Amino acid sequence: MRGTTAVVAGAAGIALGVASFGADLASGAWLTVLQFVASTGFAWGCAAFAPAVLARTRAGAMAAGIAVLCLATGGYYGLNLVSGRWRADGLGPVLAAAAYWTVLSVAGGAALGVLAHLVRSARPRPAAVAGGLVCGLLAGAGIDIVVSLLAAGDHGRQRLAEGALQAVLGVVVATWAFGRRPGARDWAGYGLAAVAACVAGASAWGAVESVPVAGF
Hints:
Blueprint: H1 4-25, H2 28-38, H3 41-54, H4 58-83, H5 91-121, H6 124-151, H7 157-179, H8 187-210
Helix pairs in contact: 1-2, 1-3, 1-4, 3-4, 3-5, 3-6, 3-7, 4-5, 5-6, 6-7, 6-8
C-alpha cells in the first residue's frame, strides 16, 4: 500500500473513528446522521472497501482494508479512554471489547481487501463470486437488523428504515463496483453469489452482534 491508497486509507480510518465517537455523544438529527454514516456495518465495510479498490496489488488491498478498520477501532476506543467514558464499565471490559473488535477489524479488512482486488482484476467468474461476497458483507448487517426486528415483532419505523437502507445501499455499492470493473462481467454469477452471500452475511452479523462483549 502506497501513495494515494495509503493517504485515502489513513484519512478514512481516522475520520471513521472520530465520527463513531462523535455519534455516541450526539443528539437529535446529528445522532441519526452520525450513527448511520459512522456506526453501522455498512459504513465500516464501505470505508474499508473503497481504498482497497484503489490498490494495485492484493497485498496492498489487504493492507488498505486492515488499516482503515484498525485505525477506526483504535481511534474510537482511544478517544473513549482519553475522555474517561470507560469508567462506567471499568477498564478491563472496555479493553476486551477493543481487542475483540480489533481482531474482527483485521479479519474483515483483509477479507474486503482481497475481494476488492478480485473484483477489479480477476477473471469474470471469480470476480463475480467476489463481487457477490462483497454484496453480502456490505448488506448483511442491514438485512440482519430487518429480519431480527420483524421476527421479534418490532415494527419501529426508524430502526427498520435504517436497516433497510443499509441493506439497499450495500447492494447498490457492491453492484456499482462490480459493474465498473474492467473487462467482462458475469452478471448471472454475480447475482447468484450475491443472494447466497446476503443470506450468509446476515447470519454472520447476527453471530458477531450476539457475542457479549462489554464496552461501547
